[in-house]
Amino acid sequence: MITSIKALIVVLAIATVTFGFARPIALRFSSKSDFSRRRNVWFILTTAAFLSPNFWLFVLVAAPVLTWAGKKDSNPIALYLILLHVIPPIPVEIPVLVIKQLFPLDNYRLLSFCVLIPAAWRLRKLKKGTRIYGLTVMDLSIFAFALLRVLNYVPPDLPDHTILQDSATHVLRRTFLFFVDAYVLYFVASRSSFNQRSVSDALCAFCLVSALMASVSVFETLKSWLLYSDISTRWGAQVIYGSNYGVYSFRGGYLRAQASVGNSLPLGYLLAIAFGFWLYLSNVVSARLRIVIAILFWLGILTSQARGALLGAIVILLVFSLLGPRALPRLLKRVVVFALLVSAAGLTPFGGRIMNSIPFFAGSTDSTSVDYRQRLAERSWELIQLHPFLGDPLVMTKMEDLRQGEGIIDLVNTYAEQTLFYGIIGLAVFLAVILLGVFKAYRVSREIARRNRDYSLLGASLVACMIGTLFTLGTTSFLSAYEIIFYVLAGLAAGYAHVGKVLEHS
After folding, report:
1. 459-488 in b/e burial notation, b at 16+ Cβ within 10 A?
2. Where are the alpha helices (DSSP H) in 152-195?
């Protein structure tokens, strides 16, 4: 407990400075009451997590606080984003008496039950405003993807290689969890986007908490201390699920930061998305502050040593530059500045080791990961050709040669994963969700550029982040924060496009 208290003091100190520093910027996009409430709830839940001996005591504190805050907040998706990783998403099974198993609960689902579902109910009953009404093509694409996942049962890869059979209970559970985990998130993100301010508020909330996580991640790497690891140890996550929450991992001699995300890979991805949002939000601050915060996000990405996120952030920068005004000069300027920063970082011991850990750079310190990905790609292509259209739910039993030392078959490519399990049809339906968002946001951004340059740049930021996400998903599995942000971006893009059409005809 003493270790937790020390870690809590450090986290609260970093958070106090971050919230204080970010307050003037945040108030440009949100009200004083919303900002103060979100900040206070974050402090309450963080303190409760570090002091709670188990997850259920934390829930006892968090559930009523989240429910109250959700009712009070004018923009529930912004509240959701700022609290998304207030603690690592450690899954804990819900205790039951009659049946053998219900489903695990984590912070994502707790937020869904306490914030998103009540917000969705209020939005459904709302009969005025500029929000989306009825079902759209994007809604139907998500339903099609859900139907495929529900009907095409993929057994979990259990340590004893037992293949669980499907049942009516499993079907009901998968349907319910898809609604809780995915659709309600997309619904609230898209339907709560009433105007430009509501979308900007959501982006700002995400950037604020990401700046906090970036600061924590830099501290963790410099001090070789994972501040949130004791929470997962006390709550038994590693023992029950064999997860790597709070597990120390080093590359190039430096600790890979995890912050409150609990894993370095999604941490890097989240900070890359925050950088993409910041490219738009930074228009309201000075050039010096714009650069300082951007550097903070990049330092966070580097300390996570998430190579897919690093390359994804570069893609986001390039796409945003191409979609903005005076595209070519701005792109060339940013490329030159980025190259100078990378070169300068490469001359430092820390920067040199980070660069050396990136695949395809000379002297990579982790060629094993690259070799595994190449083997996975070759093996996946062989198996996809056997069941090209609807995939093979039992394909994991044919990939034993790819089982790693940790005892898992790591499908580190979302597109291969979707095609293996659900075939080309499944991949097409999966991509339709985000590609429709890209198309809608891009079209509105281009059409409104002359009339409302600021709103056009907001769309460019969303498009850049979605394309960066598509790139990053080629380096990781579709789970955890990747899946959450996938639906958040799709929802925000749908809301942005709808509001843009209203502005055009006003």
Report:
1. bbbbbbbbbbbbbbbbbbbeebbbbbbbbb
2. 168-178, 184-191
In DSSP terms, which residues pair with 250 in a beta bridge? 255
* CB distance 208 to 26 below 8 Å: yes
Q: Is 406 within 8 Å of 372 (Cβ atoms)? A: no
Contact between residue 112 and residue 180 where contact means Cβ atoms under 8 Å apart: yes
Judged by phi (left if over 0) then psi (alpha if -120 to 50, else beta), residue 134 lies in left
Q: CA-to-CA distance for 432 and 438, rounded, in angstroms?
A: 10
**Could you give the CA distance from residue 459 to residue 454 in angstroms, rounded to a whole number?**
9
Q: Is 0.90 surpassed by the pTM of this model?
A: yes
Q: List, in order, residues 6 or more apart from 389 with CB less than 8 Å away.
A: 423, 424, 425
Tokens 């759209």 belong to residue? 136
Q: How would DSSP label each residue in 232-267?
A: HHHTTHHHHH---TT---EETTEE---GGGTSHHHH
**Amino acid of residue 240:** I
Residue 124 to residue 188: CA distance in whole angstroms? 10
Within 8 A by CB and 6+ apart from 462, the residues are: 437, 441, 489, 492, 493, 496
Whole-angstrom Cα distance, residue 249 to residue 304?
10
In angstroms, rounded to a whole number, what is the distance separating the alpha carbons of residues 132 and 117? 17
Question: Could you state, in chain order, the average pLDDT of each consecutive group of 10 residues for the chain (506 residues)?
Answer: 90 97 95 97 97 94 97 96 94 80 91 96 76 85 93 82 83 94 96 91 97 96 92 68 68 87 94 96 89 92 90 92 74 67 59 56 57 86 92 89 79 92 94 95 92 93 96 91 96 93 73
Concatenating the DSSP letter of every residue in 263-315 gives: SHHHHHHHHHHHHHHHHHHGGGS-HHHHHHHHHHHHHHHHHHT-HHHHHHHHH
By the 8 A CB rule, do 477 and 418 touch?
no
Q: DSSP secondary-structure letter at 439?
A: H
Q: Which residues of 123-139 are buried (b: 16+ CB within 10 A; e: fewer)?
A: beeeeeebbbeeebebb
